Automatic annotation (TrEMBL):
Protein name as it appears in the record: Ubiquitinconjugating enzyme subfamily protein
PROSITE patterns cross-referenced by the UniProt entry: UBC_2
Superkingdom of the organism of origin: Eukaryota
Domain UBC core: 1-155
Alphabetized Pfam families for the sequence: UQ_con
Organism from which the protein derives: Acanthamoeba castellanii (strain ATCC 30010 / Neff)
UniProt feature, compositional bias: Low complexity: 558-579
Region: Disordered, residue numbers: 556-660
InterPro entries: Ub_conjugating_enzyme, UBC, UBQ-conjugating_enzyme/RWD
Bias kind Basic and acidic residues: ranges: 590-600, 610-626, 633-654
């Protein structure tokens, strides 16, 4: 009956449906396109629902056949009407569909000019004049004996409205996608899933699809899949409004405490410790900033790599819709944070304390005290300090933390002296920006959200809360439009100057930037944020002394790698290791590491598995051996032949121990 009420209260002049008087599970409906070759014609359909609807899709039959690549008699081959893909994400039927959404999807699918196919690529619909004229004549001549439908008097009648608009999408954003209950009838929230760091209990990210779900659907109907079958195991209510927050408050705190404790499942019982204002504030500032930052990260990732899903066209998986989705998530949980801050002053006090400590001492900017800079930025939405007051310290810490990723992709930058020549400075500037482009895009998004969403025009957080109450915690249309434009601009940034402009920082000259990068490398090493690369595998003896028995080719290779203009005939005495680090290759290192790993493996293993491991190791060793020969870097004193011989001896020793 909810679906029928939706059709009657929110009519669309292109679709309609109603159940038969003697059978509530059999509905007759009409589709009327407003444009195209079939404009004005009426297509009559029959929908038969199962007892477990909306868990399973209805059977849809066409009363008139139209030329269409996915129509076979009265059968429609459409992904959304299939129930066998229940375990596949973004495919098949979803309980979020209602009768009206089914009708709208069918109308767009049956009368589209290009028809998307599951195997990829669209197919053009039949559009010949003769074919269309025959099909229209068939549609106009049809009469239904069960409901009395004719083309002149459609049954059920199509509504006449002044403007073609439908509030379906807006209503579905504030009602449960499964039970269709509103926030006045039940507590509404979203499903939450936790992502942990590999092999750790620590939470890496908190994910949600933002599909609105009711508490009853989560607890009684045991719904654990989102609209497009993304699994979740926790339920976090939303604020929406003051009345709804009063009913949802206990459930919000219960779920947040379980997220912080990395637990799962809803109990309906609030842990006693969360009643303490200080503990409650600490929990809120530990979980909600992580949620808010996760939407910024997802926005950056989606703009980097947008894809389409299977089924009827793209599943709202384009940059604009995904940007709006991330914006809605950020605003929803920012609304929650500000609501709790108004009732608990400790939230604001602790946020200001975190910002003050960050500014006062470099020790509080380290990873030990501030693990995630993006999450820390959320404190600024409650703090009296704005972005301009922390930007310099934030940027300095960001430079230090990015060193690890710079040297991972460009290890040669660790051995470039910033005071030598403009060529090396330019190399450092260009390579460092390229290696950290993803990180810097993320920072640009985070700063944009802070200055335009979290603290627009540096207004107080209480003013932002008042705005959220008026919009039920949802972003305005202007916010969505500005974010979409900003996303395109951020993804197009390709230089340091553009980067500094986007984060509202003064530009740096080449020497200033080189000096900043050089000091960041030194500071990162002092904090043990990274390990200095071994200069492409140069042994420590070659980096600390100039032994006369060192093979000549190693010094030649090192000199050519560090300084392309140096002579290729330089000897070991003319290139002392103390002057600059030597860059060379050390063959056999991987094989030795594998041999050491084998010594720590359990002696008792399956014979076939042990043989397979030896085969892989020998194959890798041979590949390395031949590659070194081709590149002219192989040296007999460090050759893999010795390593392979040692491995064979170790293998024979293991075999003897196993037999004994």
């Amino acid at each position: 009956m909810r679906d029928l009420h939706e059709l009657q209260s929110e009519p669309c002049r292109t679709v309609c449906a109603a159940p038969l008087e003697n059978n509530m599970l059999c509905w007759h409906g009409n589709l009327r396109p407003l444009s195209g070759p079939y404009a004005g014609a009426v297509l009559h359909i029959i929908m038969e629902f199962a007892e477990d609807y909306p868990a399973s899709p209805p059977q849809v039959k066409l009363c008139q056949t139209i030329p269409h690549p996915n129509v076979f008699g009265d059968y429609i081959c459409l992904d959304m009407l299939k129930s066998y893909t229940v375990s596949q994400r973004y495919a098949g039927w979803s309980s979020a569909y209602s009768v009206q959404s089914i009708l709208l999807q069918l109308q767009g699918f049956l009368f589209a000019e290009n028809i998307p196919q599951e195997h990829g690529g669209p197919i053009k619909a039949y559009s010949g004049d003769k074919v269309v004229s025959v099909a229209r004549a068939w549609l106009d001549s049809f009469a239904c004996a069960a409901c009395g439908h004719t083309s002149a008097q459609p049954q059920p009648p199509l509504p006449e409205v002044d403007a073609f608009y439908c509030l379906l999408e807006r209503r579905q954003s504030v009602i449960c996608f499964h039970s269709k209950r509103t926030h006045e009838e039940d507590v509404l929230g979203v499903g939450i899933s936790l992502e942990h760091f590999p092999g750790q209990a620590r939470i890496k990210a908190i994910n949600t699809s933002l599909d609105v779900l009711s508490l009853r659907a989560f607890t009684q109907d045991r719904v654990r899949l989102s609209v497009w079958k993304e699994p979740f195991r926790l339920f976090l209510p939303l604020v929406i409004g003051p009345d709804h927050f009063g009913r949802a408050r206990e459930h919000i705190l219960d779920t947040l405490s379980r997220i912080e404790n990395e637990g799962g499942g809803f109990t309906g019982r609030l842990p006693q410790w969360t009643r303490d204002p200080i503990d409650q504030a600490r929990m809120l500032l530990a979980v909600l900033p992580k949620l808010m930052n996760s939407f910024v990260v997802s926005l950056m990732n989606n703009n980097s790599n947008c894809s389409t899903a299977r089924g009827f066209g793209p599943r709202t998986n384009n940059s604009q819709v995904l940007s709006e989705r991330a914006l809605e998530g950020y605003c929803s949980f920012h609304h929650m944070l500000l609501t709790f801050a108004r009732e608990n002053p400790e939230v604001e006090r602790m946020a200001n304390e975190a910002v003050d400590k960050f500014l006062a001492s470099p020790a509080f900017r380290s990873k030990a005290h501030t693990p995630d800079l993006g999450e820390w930025l959320v404190n600024l939405t409650l703090s009296t300090a704005g972005w301009e007051g922390v930007a310099e310290q934030f940027l300095g810490e960001l430079f230090v933390r990015n060193v690890r990723w710079i040297l991972q992709d460009a290890p040669h930058l660790a051995h470039i002296h910033t005071g030598r020549g403009g060529g090396q400075s330019a190399l450092m500037i260009d390579d460092s920006f390229t290696c950290t482009l993803v990180s810097r895009r993320l920072v640009m998004f985070q700063v944009y959200f802070l200055k335009n969403i979290g603290r627009p025009n540096n207004q107080s957080w209480r003013d932002s809360l008042t705005t959220y109450h008026r919009t039920m915690g949802r972003p305005t249309h202007s916010m969505k439009a500005h974010l979409h434009a900003a996303s395109k601009a951020i993804m197009a940034v390709a230089s340091w100057d553009e980067y500094f402009d986007r984060i509202w920082m003064p530009r740096m000259s080449g020497p200033q930037l080189t000096a900043r990068l050089g000091s960041a490398i030194a500071e990162s090493a002092a904090r043990n944020y990274h390990r200095t690369p071994r200069s492409f595998g140069v042994p420590s003896a070659l980096r600390t002394s100039s032994s006369t028995d060192t093979p000549r080719f190693l010094h030649q290779q090192a000199a050519s790698d560090v300084s392309p203009g140096s002579s290729s005939t330089a000897s070991s005495s003319s290139s002392p290791a103390g002057d600059r680090p030597l860059l060379a290759h050390r063959p056999g290192r991987r094989a030795r590491d594998e041999r050491d790993d084998d010594r720590h493996r359990p002696a008792k293993r399956h014979r076939r598995s042990d043989s397979r491991d030896r085969s892989r190791s020998r194959s890798r060793g041979r590949d390395r051996y031949h590659r070194d020969h081709r590149q002219g870097r192989h040296d007999p004193s460090y050759g893999l032949d010795r390593e392979l011989g040692s491995r064979r001896r170790d293998d024979r020793s293991r075999e003897r121990r196993r037999h004994h």
